């Protein structure tokens, strides 16, 4: 069958050049790579070399049973640009630096204040082996301190810090997790602001604290959210599934354990470039702690108290954000999505309107029990 | 042809053997001439059915009628037949000018074997025997259909083996049957001794990785295949039958599926396919991931792999090939060895070599685990022929992965799929899934 043979030949002729184009990655044995666990980027003290990069490198081990202690090595270097610093860092290691397993990028607080985020992002996004699903966080006092610290009880090969963000370890309500892709999106999009968790190490302490967050616009000064405000923003953003909230009203002081949170937000356009931010949040759970004895019959009353308290707290926290023009929740995007392009305000007009927006919060409480057995 | 000429012709034919026995008996006006080969016939039967009656019967006519009535009686059509049948164990009887053949064949190989290749926990433990007649008897006792047809062809110029073509006339695909008959006629070989040999001779494409006929020793599988409209080939003296056309999924079923409840057999089937993919892809994936894209691993695993490779002098693909080579040697050795020794060989090979190799850091721990996992999952494939094919394909996939990484593996797997799709077994697409077949007649699952 000559025809069939011709077809086979043609197929091979096409296939072989295509295969050679499939270069992909080069052949390199895994033991000739060194895996980077975290990247810390700080402001350096030298004038002409503003970036100081610290890399945390895993030391491979054949058996974690034989060496359960975490082992890392660190290299750091300052450079005029990030690429330059990394190029020099490559000469500090006998093996190829492999960023494929980098899970966390810590940016020093000092550097963020300098408004260099855009430059950082460019490098992080362009480098192909840095995964877009790495987390981005702010390091206080410096990224280097955070990267170099190993808290007690840390497992080998899985830095404790990752557990804060992956939602598998601690599931605290005060932790914001921001992925690199989300960071990039918030950075490039004008009507949503960046929110990053702050990792703190206090002096003479051997553990991290992750319970605050930092908000910053593309050009403005960063704004720090305290622990409670972080929680409320987290709840609106649906980042958390459980939360503890308190009610301190009319002589009562009790804590609620919320195990189901549903929130909705929307921008309503009133007349004269006036907007209203509409937030509806369902909070279901039970009362977990109280200073006074509670009567299960009075659950409706406690719900009312919870509703008022919740509303006040949300309005207070949001007002502060809105007044300063910070928008981590993305009302601006919501507005853009719902308005025709020819009827839309300009970005400047929107910012103005946002600062003067009315805030309408509706808390729908669902306390199911006082937590006590009748 | 006169009687004397014929007898002379027979003498001529057998002049080279000293085993042909000629018996001339005369008694009471009766005259009988016997030719047989002593080592081939059953003496007791000859004595009981021919010699005794000869002396007891009153006339030659009566003896003549009696011999005609015997179930072993066979009519003669040609001189060549006489020669052939005598060589097979028939006795030639000459009375006056009449020639008869009586089948007093002695076969010591008609006992049914125990299953040794396709063993099961449940179900029959008996396989076919080495004797063709017994095998056909087994099939007929299990498959009661008048449409079951057996055809015989003699193959092999030297050894003149009988080949049986068995099929269900109502269900078989006629074009498949015709091709097989035609191909069998064309086989021109000196020696045919096994059914698998036919597999190689009557296929269109003799050089192929995957088998196009399924070889089996289990009567229940043959019955299952007969009911599915397949053609079965038997060679005398061979306990294995081949069934054709065979598709890929035939090789992944075991007869044990029929002995389990639905859920269990579904579970076993999933397990089997998982084993298939594991044994096919695992070594290649190891090469691809460790050497090209370590990001795919979890961090802990990447570090463990990297750590366990410390001190290993080879690249990952050499390591894989090296270990697989030893595994294949071990498999081959344990087949060839006597049963008593083979257990020792596996222990020495598997345990001691495995540990020693990691101790000497010729291969990483992870590699030893992978090789053993691959070896075990290869055994899950129920039909041995397919397991051998998979072993070959696996090597090809490792080669392409060593050059092109995971992208190459995907492409290689794709090429494998295309190859399978392009293949056919006697006109039947190789990757055909019978459960979704539109043609009800050929549906095996529905019968």
Keywords:
heterodimer, A: 374 residues, alpha/beta, GMP Synthetase, Chain A, domain 3, 2 domains, 9-stranded mixed sheet, 4-stranded mixed sheet, 11 helices, B: 447 residues, alpha+beta, 3 domains, 5-stranded antiparallel sheet, 14 helices, elongated, UPF0353/GerABKA_families (chain B), transmembrane (chain B), Spore germination protein (chain B), membrane (chain B), Spore_Ger (chain B)
Give a written overview of the molecule.
The complex is a heterodimer of chains A (374) and B (447). Chain A has 374 residues and is α/β, with parallel strands linked by helices. Chain A is 31% helix and 29% strand. In chain A, strands 1, 2, 3, 4, 5, 6, 7, 8 and 9 form a nine-stranded mixed beta sheet that branches. A four-stranded mixed beta sheet of chain A has the order 10-11-12-13, with helices on both faces. In chain A, helix 4 crosses helix 7 (180-188). The model of chain A has no long low-confidence stretch (mean pLDDT 84). Chain B has three domains: 3-103, no CATH class; 112-245, no CATH class; 257-425, no CATH class. Helix content of chain B is 50%, strand content 15%. The interface between A and B is medium-sized, with 27 and 29 residues.
């Amino acid at each position: 069958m000559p025809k069939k043979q011709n077809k086979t030949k043609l197929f091979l002729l096409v296939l072989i050049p295509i295969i050679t184009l499939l270069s992909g990655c080069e052949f390199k044995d895994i033991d000739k790579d060194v895996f980077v666990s975290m990247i810390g980027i700080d402001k350096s003290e030298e004038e002409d070399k503003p970036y100081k990069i610290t890399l945390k490198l895993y030391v491979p081990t054949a058996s974690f049973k034989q060496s359960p202690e975490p082992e890392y090595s660190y290299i750091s270097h300052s450079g005029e640009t990030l690429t330059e610093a990394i190029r020099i860092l490559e000469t500090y290691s006998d093996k190829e630096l492999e960023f494929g397993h980098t899970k966390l990028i810590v940016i020093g607080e000092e550097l963020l204040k300098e408004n260099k985020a855009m430059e950082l992002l460019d490098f992080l996004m362009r480098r192909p082996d840095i995964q877009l699903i790495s987390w981005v966080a702010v390091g206080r006092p410096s990224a280097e301190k955070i990267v170099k610290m190993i808290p007690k009880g840390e497992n080998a090969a899985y830095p404790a810090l990752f557990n804060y963000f992956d939602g598998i370890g601690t599931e605290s309500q005060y932790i914001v997790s921001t992925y690199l892709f989300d960071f990039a999106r918030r950075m490039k999009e004008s009507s949503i602001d960046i929110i990053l968790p702050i990792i703190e190490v206090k002096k003479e302490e051997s553990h991290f604290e992750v319970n605050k967050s930092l908000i910053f616009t593309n050009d403005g000064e960063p704004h720090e959210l305290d622990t409670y405000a972080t929680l409320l923003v987290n709840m609106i953003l649906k980042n958390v599934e459980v939360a503890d909230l308190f009610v301190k009203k009319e002589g009562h002081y009790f804590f609620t354990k919320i195990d189901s949170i549903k929130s909705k937000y929307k921008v309503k356009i009133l007349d004269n470039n006036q907007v209203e931010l509409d937030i509806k949040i369902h909070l279901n759970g039970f009362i977990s702690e109280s200073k006074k004895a509670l009567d299960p019959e009075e659950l409706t009353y406690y719900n009312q108290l919870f509703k008022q308290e919740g509303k006040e707290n949300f309005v207070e926290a949001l007002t502060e954000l809105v007044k300063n023009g910070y928008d981590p929740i993305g009302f601006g995007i919501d507005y853009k999505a719902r308005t025709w392009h020819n009827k839309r305000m300009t970005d400047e007009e929107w910012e103005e309107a946002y600062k003067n927006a009315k805030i309408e919060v509706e808390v729908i409480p669902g306390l199911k029990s006082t937590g006590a057995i009748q | 042809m006169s009687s004397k000429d014929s007898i002379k012709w027979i003498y001529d034919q057998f002049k080279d053997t000293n085993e042909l026995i000629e018996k001339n008996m005369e008694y009471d006006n009766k005259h009988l001439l016997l030719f047989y080969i002593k080592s081939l016939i059953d003496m007791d039967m000859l004595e009981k059915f021919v010699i005794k009656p000869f002396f007891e019967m009153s006339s030659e006519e009566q003896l003549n009628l009696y011999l005609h009535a015997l179930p072993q009686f066979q009519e003669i059509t040609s001189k060549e037949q006489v020669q052939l049948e005598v060589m097979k164990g028939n006795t030639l009887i000459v009375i006056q000018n009449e020639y008869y053949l009586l089948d007093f064949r002695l076969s010591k190989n008609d006992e049914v074997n125990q299953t040794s290749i396709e063993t099961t926990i449940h179900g029959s433990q008996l396989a076919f025997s080495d004797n063709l007649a017994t095998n056909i008897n087994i099939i007929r006792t299990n498959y009661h259909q008048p449409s079951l047809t057996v055809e015989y062809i003699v193959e092999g110029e030297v050894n003149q083996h009988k080949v049986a073509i068995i099929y269900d006339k109502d269900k078989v695909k006629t074009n498949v049957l015709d091709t097989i008959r035609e191909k069998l006629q064309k086989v021109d070989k000196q020696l045919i001794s096994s059914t698998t040999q036919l597999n190689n001779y009557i296929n269109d494409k003799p050089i192929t990785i995957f088998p196009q006929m399924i070889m089996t020793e289990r009567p229940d599988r043959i019955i299952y295949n007969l009911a599915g409209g397949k053609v079965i080939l038997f060679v005398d003296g061979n306990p294995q039958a081949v069934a054709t056309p065979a598709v890929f999924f035939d090789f992944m079923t075991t007869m044990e599926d029929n002995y389990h409840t639905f859920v269990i057999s579904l579970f076993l089937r999933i397990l089997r396919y998982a084993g298939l993919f594991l044994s096919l892809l695992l070594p290649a994936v190891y090469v691809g991931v460790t050497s090209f894209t370590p990001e795919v691993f979890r961090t802990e695993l990447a570090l463990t792999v990297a750590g366990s490779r410390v001190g290993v002098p080879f690249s990952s693909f050499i390591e894989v090939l090296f270990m697989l080579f030893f595994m294949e040697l071990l498999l081959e050795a344990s087949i060839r060895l006597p049963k008593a020794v083979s257990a020792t060989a596996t222990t020495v090979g598997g345990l001691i070599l495995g540990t020693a190799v990691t101790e000497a850091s010729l291969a990483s721990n992870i590699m030893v685990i992978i090789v053993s996992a691959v070896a075990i999952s290869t055994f899950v494939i129920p039909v041995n022929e397919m397991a051998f094919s998979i072993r070959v394909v696996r090597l090809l996939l490792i080669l392409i992965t060593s050059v092109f990484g995971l992208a190459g593996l995907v492409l290689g797997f794709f090429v494998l799929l295309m190859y399978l799709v392009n293949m056919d077994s006697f006109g039947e697409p190789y990757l055909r899934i019978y459960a979704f077949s539109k043609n009800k007649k050929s549906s095996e699952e529905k019968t």
